[in-house]
Write a structure and sequence with these properties.
six-stranded mixed sheet, alpha/beta, five-stranded parallel sheet, binds pyridoxal-5'-phosphate, 14 strands, Rossmann fold
């Protein structure tokens, strides 16, 4: 399979190079040159499969030309070694629980797959590969855990000191092995700037192979198509349904739209936002106005200029009227998000995290207009990951799942640096 850039359809780049580069040379994002459409009998078989088997089937379609079958199957099974159960919350509304991986957020799927696919391509390279990732929390933990122990790859997680939750910090700063935490005495924007400067530093990139694990990397977003099929496989045959996707950078949404192109029989997609609603406004007005993000309690969606939006435009040939046939936008303030979490918990006993709560409510509102359809919202993180906000709403302490609790007692190890590129560069050169 070849990949083109969203800025240049004539560009043709192979999988390995697209993976290593992350971003296309012209600054666009990579897209597959053709999206495979599943045969009817493959679709029927998928309905009987668990998530790992679906992942193996679909990764063969997506990456089978570039990776030998046995190895692809093995790395896919290693990456996708947990399920994404569909849980009925109430009549006509289901939660697709994406938090059963090691860091309890959906990013585990993409990060674990990317790590192993990259590991496959770099296995025979003499030099180590250095993955740089800037994080405000969730991405760092998913990427660090995804790459833990993958040979030939070192990960450097840059995060703003004191600005990620203590638990999130522990999830990437206590692992050791091939994972290092770079504690930047600055903001998230500083972290992003340092990472960008490193990628653009010609002298440095001649000495070291650097790559990115942010959601612009195609091997992070494409595998997320797996669980959209898994959701469908768990619905009653013939159910007419839609997805409601709590969104920030829109990697998850893009994967859903790709799943639809592959033949998933879904009716429509809802785009659920917190007050950072640039896409909801775009859907309403047709004009895209990026802006600085505003902090909210659903902070993994605090994005003012979603990076994967160009991929969505590309899928629909830049046509607003076409996009709005497949997507409808909803957005919620923090006050509303708290109200939703409380109400759903009281009325159904189901506990949403702040991100999933936006997805639930969008599904609920859409169903009022389309009562015949079944809504599936993506529950993108375990509520205990956001326990401060959730506990305040329900007035009860949440128990930390074992996988999270295990991190609490471990010792943090970080490399503190000032938000200064020469210092970051010196750190990298010493690796
Ligand atoms: C990253 C994240 C999102 C947003 O996903 P995108 O693919 O960036 O749209 C939503 N919820 C949680 C919990 C996340 O970690």
């Amino acid at each position: 399979m070849h990949y083109y850039s969203t800025k240049n359809k004539n560009l043709r780049i192979g999988l390995k190079e697209a993976l290593l580069r992350g971003l296309a040379p012209d600054g666009g994002l990579f897209m597959p040159a053709s999206i495979p459409v599943l045969k009817r009998d493959t679709l029927e078989k998928i309905r009987e499969m668990d998530l790992s088997d679906i992942a193996v089937t679909l990764s063969r379609e997506l990456f089978g030309e570039d990776v030998p079958e046995k190895e692809l199957e093995q790395l896919t099974r290693e990456a996708v070694n947990f399920d994404t159960p569909l849980v009925q919350v109430e009549e006509g509304i289901h939660s697709l629980e994406l938090f059963h991986g090691p860091t309890l957020a959906f990013k585990d799927v993409g990060a674990r797959f990317l790590a192993r696919l990259l590991g496959h391509f770099t296995r025979d390279m003499e030099q180590e590969i250095h993955v740089l990732v800037a994080t405000s929390g969730d991405t760092g933990s998913a990427v660090a855990n995804g790459f833990l122990g993958v040979k030939g790859i070192r990960v450097h997680v840059c995060y703003p000191s004191g600005l990620v939750s203590p638990l999130q910090e522990k999830q990437f700063s206590t692992l050791g092995e091939n994972i290092s935490a770079v504690e930047v005495q600055g903001s998230f924007d500083d972290c992003q700037r340092l990472v960008k400067e490193a990628f653009m530093d010609k002298e440095l990139t001649q000495k070291m192979t650097l790559t990115s694990a942010n959601s612009i990397n195609l091997a992070r977003f494409l595998p997320q198509a797996f669980y959209y099929f898994r959701a469908w496989a768990q619905l009653e045959p013939g159910t007419e349904f839609f997805f409601s996707v709590p969104s920030g950078n829109y990697g998850n949404m893009t994967a859903g739209l790709v799943a639809r192109e592959m033949g998933l029989p879904v009716q429509t997609f809802l785009s659920a936002n917190n007050i950072n609603d640039v896409i909801a406004s775009y859907l309403l007005t047709g004009s895209y106005k990026p802006r600085l993000s505003t902090p909210t309690i659903a902070n993994a969606m605090d994005v003012g200029d979603p990076s994967n939006f160009v991929r969505i435009l590309d899928l629909f040939c830049q046509k607003h009227e076409w996009i709005t046939q497949h997507m409808e936008g909803y957005s919620y303030s923090d006050t509303q998000i708290r109200e939703i979490i409380g109400r759903v918990y009281r009325e159904t006993g189901y506990l949403c995290d702040p991100h999933g709560a936006t997805g639930y409510q969008a599904a609920k509102s859409y169903r009022e207009k389309h009562p015949g359809l079944t809504g599936v919202f993506l529950e993108t993180a375990h509520p205990a990951k956001f326990r401060e906000s959730v506990e305040e709403v329900i007035g009860k302490e949440l128990e930390l799942p074992e996988r999270l609790a295990a991190f609490v007692t471990k010792e943090k190890q970080s490399h503190p640096i000032r938000p200064d590129y020469t210092e970051f560069r010196k750190y990298l050169c010493n690796q």
